[in-house]
């Protein structure tokens, strides 16, 4: 083994470790969020209800037609959020295991694929769901009491960083084409 191969191998191992840790961190976080929403159902149900009802916004008549005030619709949206969080956390937990096993075996292509699916699920939930739909469509940014934009932004940032690391060329094993 030449020096080139030794130095080339170290970043790949380091990047695979970073991808494992970042994927695992997002998986743990999302698992705890889903667990909290299931075991303390009412706390975040109230959050979702207030955001969708737009009852703590500026109540601009030109926007209030967007409000969803039906508790059944609000609860259905909340259950969909919990189901999505749970599914994404399961995908990311599986991806973390695949990274751990694949890094030792020198093949992380499947880990990369599964991580990508899970991380994109997180980006859709917090980026499209909370930032775009909650923040803009339902004017969550106007609420002092029920505003989850800061937390959603942190989640988008963490998942986005993890996705970038997962797709860095050195995170793949050498025999996978040096992607």
UniProtKB/TrEMBL annotation:
Record-given protein name: DUF2165 domain-containing protein
Xref: InterPro entries: DUF2165_transmembrane
Keywords in alphabetical order: Membrane, Transmembrane, Transmembrane helix
Keyword Transmembrane included in the entry's annotation: yes
Annotated transmembrane regions: 12-35, 76-102, 114-135, 155-173
Pfam families according to UniProt: DUF2165 (PF09933)
Protein's organism: Streptomyces decoyicus
């Amino acid at each position: 083994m030449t020096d080139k191969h030794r130095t080339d191998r170290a970043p790949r191992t380091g990047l695979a470790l970073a991808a494992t840790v970042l994927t695992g961190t997002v998986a743990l976080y999302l698992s705890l969020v889903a667990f909290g929403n299931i075991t303390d159902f009412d706390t975040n149900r109230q959050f979702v209800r207030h955001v969708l009802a737009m009852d703590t916004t500026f109540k601009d008549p030109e926007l209030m037609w967007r409000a969803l005030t039906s508790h059944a619709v609000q609860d259905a949206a909340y259950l969909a959020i919990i189901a999505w969080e749970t599914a994404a956390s399961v995908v990311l937990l599986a991806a973390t295991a695949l990274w751990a096993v694949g890094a030792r075996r020198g093949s992380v292509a499947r880990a990369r694929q599964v991580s990508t699916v899970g991380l994109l699920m997180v980006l859709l939930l917090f980026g499209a769901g909370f930032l775009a739909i909650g923040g803009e469509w339902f004017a969550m940014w106007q609420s002092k009491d029920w505003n989850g934009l800061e937390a959603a932004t942190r989640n988008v940032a963490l998942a986005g960083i993890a996705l970038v690391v997962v797709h860095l060329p050195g995170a793949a094993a050498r025999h996978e084409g040096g992607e």
